[in-house]
Inverse folding.
C-alpha cells in the first residue's frame, strides 16, 4: 500500500500539478487516499502514515489514540482539534483532520488555527480561525459546535496556552468526553514556558496535570473542610503516556468504601 501511495505522489500527481487548482488537486489526493485506505479504516497508525500526520513517525501517538477512541469510531460525535498544521501556509496541514474523518465514519471534525486554514474545509470538516487563548473566540466556536465529545490540544504547545485552554474548554466538554493534550515535552522546555528542575510546578503542563491525580480520590480525603474542586468532581481518569495525556470527564462522586463500612 505504501508503494501505491508513493506511485500516486511521484507519478500520478505531477501529471496534474500544473493543470489543476490546489482545491482540485486536494480532491484527487483525497480520492486516492480513500482508495488506499478502504480496507484499513480502523488502523489509525496506517491512516496516519497515508494522511501524513506526525501523530505516527515523529510521535508515537496513534496506538494510544486507537486504544481510547476505538469504541467511538462508529458514533456520531463532534471532535475538535486545536491546530490544523502547516502554520502560515494556507494549503499545508490538515493531515490529522482528514485522518480523523476517515477513522470516525460519522463524526463531525472541527478545528481552528491562528492562521487561515479554510482551504482544508470539506464535508464533515469545519475550520475556524482564531487563537486558543482568546476566550471570546473559544465561546463562539463552542456555541457553533454544540456538544463536544473529544477535544485535542495540538496547538501552540506553550505551557501557559495549554493550561488556559484546558481551563476554558474542559468545562464545555460533554460528560463522558475525552480531553487530550499532545506534545507535553514542552513542559520541560524553557522556551515554551516549561522547566525541568521543578517538575511539579503547576505552571507547567506536567506539573499541573499531575496535581489533578489526587483529586480522583477526593472522597477519601478525611479532612472535612476540604472543598472538592470542579476538576475533582468532573475527572474520572487521567492517562499519561510519553508526551501525551488523556483526561476523561465524568461524575467523580463514587462513595468511599469507608463510608459504607461505617453506615
Ligand atoms: C503541530 S501543528 C498541528 C498539526 C496537526 N494537528 C496534525 O496533527 O497534523 C500546530 C498548529 O497550531 C497552530 N497554532 C499555534 N499557535 C496557536 C494558537 N495560539 N491558537 C491556535 N492555533 C495555534 C499553528 O499555526 C500550527 O498550524
Amino acid at each position: 500500500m505504501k508503494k501505491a501511495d508513493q506511485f500516486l505522489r511521484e507519478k500520478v500527481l505531477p501529471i496534474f500539478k500544473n493543470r489543476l487548482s490546489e482545491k482540485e488537486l486536494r480532491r484527487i489526493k483525497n480520492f486516492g487516499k480513500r482508495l488506499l485506505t478502504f480496507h484499513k479504516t480502523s488502523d489509525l497508525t496506517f491512516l496516519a502514515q497515508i494522511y501524513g500526520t506526525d501523530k505516527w513517525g515523529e510521535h508515537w501517538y496513534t496506538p494510544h489514540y486507537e486504544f481510547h477512541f476505538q469504541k467511538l469510531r462508529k458514533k456520531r460525535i463532534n471532535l475538535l482539534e486545536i491546530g490544523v498544521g502547516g502554520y502560515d501556509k494556507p494549503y499545508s496541514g490538515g493531515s490529522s483532520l482528514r485522518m480523523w474523518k476517515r477513522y470516525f465514519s460519522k463524526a463531525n471534525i472541527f478545528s481552528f488555527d491562528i492562521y487561515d486554514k479554510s482551504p482544508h474545509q470539506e464535508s464533515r470538516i469545519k475550520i475556524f480561525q482564531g487563537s486558543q487563548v482568546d476566550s471570546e473566540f473559544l465561546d463562539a466556536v463552542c456555541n457553533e459546535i454544540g456538544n463536544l465529545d473529544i477535544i485535542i490540544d495540538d496547538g501552540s504547545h506553550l505551557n501557559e496556552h495549554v493550561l488556559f485552554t484546558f481551563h476554558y474548554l474542559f468545562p464545555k466538554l460533554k460528560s463522558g468526553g475525552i480531553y487530550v493534550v499532545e506534545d507535553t515535552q514542552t513542559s520541560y522546555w524553557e522556551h515554551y514556558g516549561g522547566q525541568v528542575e521543578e517538575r511539579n510546578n503547576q505552571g507547567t503542563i506536567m506539573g499541573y496535570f499531575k496535581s489533578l491525580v489526587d483529586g480522583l480520590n477526593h472522597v477519601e480525603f478525611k479532612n472535612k473542610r476540604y472543598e472538592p474542586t470542579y476538576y475533582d468532581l468532573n475527572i474520572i481518569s487521567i492517562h499519561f503516556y510519553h508526551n501525551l495525556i488523556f483526561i476523561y470527564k465524568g461524575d467523580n462522586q463514587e462513595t468511599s468504601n469507608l463510608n459504607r463500612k461505617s453506615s
Observations:
- The first helix runs from residue 2 to 17.
- Residues 78 and 145 are 7 Å apart (CA to CA).
- The chain has a mean pLDDT of 94.
- Strands lie at 78-82, 108-113, 125-129, 150-153, 178-182, 235-241, 244-249.
